[in-house]
Amino acid sequence: MEKIVINGGKPLFGEVSVSGAKNAAVAIIPAVVLCDEPCRIENIPNISDVTLIATILKEMGAIVKRVNKSTLDIDPRPINTYEAIGDNVRGMRASYYLLGALLGRFHNAKVALPGGCNFGVRPIDQHLRGFALMGAENELINGAIIHSTTKGSFHGAHIYFDTVSVGSTMNIILAAVKAEGQTIIENAAKEPHIVDLANFLNSMGANIRGAGTDVIKIRGVEYLHGVTYSIIPDQIEAGTYMAAAAATRGKITVRNITPKHLDSITAKLREMGVDIEEYDEAVVVDATKRPLSRVNIKTMPHPGFPTDCQPQFVAALTTVKGTSIVNESVWDNRYQYVNELVRMGATISVEGRLAIIEGGTQLTAAPVRATDLRAGAAMIIAALVADGITYISDINYIERGYSDVVNKFKALGADIEKIYIPDNEEVLTTA
Q: What's the mean pLDDT in 323-327?
């Protein structure tokens, strides 16, 4: 069993460079399935989700070569199946982007129901309804979603989403790129990784307009050529390090970012009393100058405060005197990690979608676990400020979305290690 062990109480100082965006990479890599030539994808985060989706493409017949830890060469031409039903597919949520990509290429798809973090119902009914409007019939057999169309029947459609959904928006874009005619998506999500996916597809010759707004128009094309494309920086990873600097009352420089993507995070930190200086591709976060203030947060679709930064900010707010209230409006069960913070001495009560944090009490070390990806990041932040040595288990969740997280925090001055505990033994050895 692997764990992360942290000796808390040290403020963070120094520089950290953010990796490519996980949420963009796990859609852009499946999007290569649509291409008629090889592609090179750069600035890929070195995380387990990327390894999984690359492995899935190889199992389907694609030639995938890792040029270096942040670059993949992918030749999708040998893929001759529209099925993706193995255990690797079930192991990650974002594998559902294969539905759109395979429908777009073959007009048929058979994809196992996805897994991933478990913090609420992840309905894909809007994905399925959109595909149905485009002419794909779907059925669920033995845990796999099967879409089928008769030849020539897969076509563009006018699709209105009942709720703003990132996954649905990206999946319909993938399916529509090579569909006959025009597809219009209304009430589309606007997240930066949606824009990145559209930019990638357009660079190959797709015709997508309006990504980043609530109306996206896609006119189908017949051929997509190969490109070299660099993925955008990860706004959530950046927000995690920014929250950690605030929690530990440190001062750090976060590099390889797009400051505009961080507007809602930056605004909330400034409201807390953190000094923020923005540069072209960097931001300086300084929490050393004054006591921090309590704030209220409501998660919202972009450009609102991202749900994926909510647990990290809750961890940071436990260190701030006063009562802070967090309203989770995106997911219905994202507070599973709160019990872990309470084990460390935090005073937090959850009432439905609200978390009420009575901050200012010194956290103390305790054995805790990562209940999901972003909850794992919250555990790291809590451990950084806690008195004593904290052991974090189930770190596979953390490694799904954070590249080289231990070394990055160590470079900022954290006393952090990844350790291995042999089965049935209590002896700890540094991995």
A: 98
Would you say residue 427 has pLDDT above 70?
no
CATH of domain 22-230: 3.65.10.10
Which is nearest to 284 in space by CA: 245, 250, 254, 246? 254
Fold of 2-19+233-430: UDP-n-acetylglucosamine1-carboxyvinyl-transferase; Chain (3.65.10)
Q: Does residue 143 register a pLDDT over 80?
A: no
What is the C-alpha R_g of the chain? 22
Q: Which residues are within 8 A (CB) of 54 and not within 5 positions of it... i.e. 6 or more apart?
A: 29, 64, 66, 72, 74
pLDDT band at 152 (very low <50, low <70, confident <90, very high): low
Report the pLDDT value the prediction gives residue 150, as an integer from 0 to 100.
65
SS3 305: strand
* CB 228 within 8 Å of CB 236: no
Over residues 27-42, mean pLDDT = 98
The tokens describing 96, both together, are 């559902």
CATH 3.65.10.10 domain range(s) in the chain: 2-19+233-430, 22-230
Q: How far apart are CA 50 and CA 286, in angstroms?
A: 32
pLDDT tens, residue by residue, 342-366: 999 999 999 999 999 999 999 999 9
Tell me which residue of 348, 357, 300, 369 sits closest to 323, measured CA to CA.
357
Burial tier of 343 (Cβ tally within 10 Å: 0-12, 13-18, 19+) = middle
Q: What residues contact residue 85 under an 8 Å CB cut-off, 6+ apart?
A: 110, 111, 112, 144
Q: Provide the CA 380 distance to its chain's centre, in angstroms.
A: 17
* C-alpha dihedral sign at 155, 127, 261, 71: negative
Instruction: Check residue 428 and give its pLDDT.
Output: 46
Looking up tokens 């998506």, which residue turns up?
185
355: Cβ contacts below 8 Å, ≥ 6 apart: 314, 325, 326, 328, 335, 338, 348, 349
User: In 3D, which of 418, 367, 414, 411 has the Cα closest to residue 395?
Assistant: 418
By annotation, the residues acting in catalysis are 117
H helix intervals, 3-124? 22-31, 48-59, 87-90, 97-106
Distance CA 258, CA 219 (A): 29
Contact 109, 135 (CB under 8 A): no
**What's the pLDDT band for 423 if we cut at 50, 70, 90?**
low
Task: Count the Cβ atoms, other than its own, within 10 Å of residue 207.
Answer: 14
Structure tokens, 271: 């409201």
